[in-house]
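Follow-up to my earlier ticket, as requested here are the two runs.
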Amino acid sequence: MDNVTKRIGLRTLHIQRKPDKWGESFQFAVNDVPFFAKGACWIPADTFAPHLKPEDYRDLIQSSADANMNMLRVWGGGFYEDDIFYDLCDELGICIWQDFMFACAHLPRF
C-alpha cells in the first residue's frame, strides 16, 4: 500500500565526564569513541530562508567539512533550519549543537 525509503545511521552521541588531574573532563563521544570538537557557530545563511537552495547549503556545509570542522553550533537567535541542513551535516559527519530558539532573546520574567 505504501513504501518509504530512508537512509539512516544508528549511533550514540554523549558527553563523557570523568575525573582528571584538573577536575573533570568534558568531551564528546560517538559510539564510545571520543573526539575533539572543532567547528563554528552557524547563523542563518540568508535573512530570507526561502532564498536558499540545497546547493547553497551543500556549498557552505562542505566548506565546513573541508576546513576539518566536525561540529556546528546552530545559533539560538536564528531559526530552525530546513531538513536539508541536518541531512547534509549527517552525510558529511558534522555534529550539531542546537541552541533553543530565542535562547539569546530578552524574555519577560514571570
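Run two:
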Amino acid sequence: MFLVACTFASLLVQHSLAAAENEATKSATNSFAVRILVDARKTRGELKPIWRFFGADEPNYAYMKHGQKLLGELGELGHAYFRTHNLLTSGDGTPALKWGSTGAYREDTHGNPIYDWTILDRNFDTYLARGVRPYAQIGFMPKDLSLKPEPY
C-alpha cells in the first residue's frame, strides 16, 4: 500500500513538473530579469518552530523501556508530535523491525469484524504520558481486509 502511495505521489510530481515546464515555455516570451537581495542581518520576526515532528515504523517500541525514555526526551522539547507507521497492521503487538502489529482489526471464522483498540490505546497513552502529541497516520491494512493477503 505504501509503495502504491509512493508511486502515485511520484506520478503526481512528474505530472506537475511537466505542466510547470510547459507553462515556463509558454511564458518565456514574456519573461523579465529579477534581482533578489537577501540581508541575513535584518530580523523580520519570530521563526515559529514547525518542525517538531518525529516518527518511527514500529509503533510498539513506544511503550518499551528505551522507547519511553526517547519519547520523554522529545516531550521535554515542548510541542513535539510523534507519528508512527503500521497503526492498522495485523498482529498481537509483538514488535518487529519495520513491521508493527496492533491487532486493531481481525475477523472471526464467520467473517464478522472484531475491533480491538487495546494496543493502539497503549501507544497513544504512552505518547501523552511523556508530553508528546500523537500525529495519527492511518495507514497499512489489516490482513483480514486485504483482497490478496499473501505475501503479507
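The only thing I checked on run two: Residues 2-27 form the longest helix (26 residues). Let me know what else you need.
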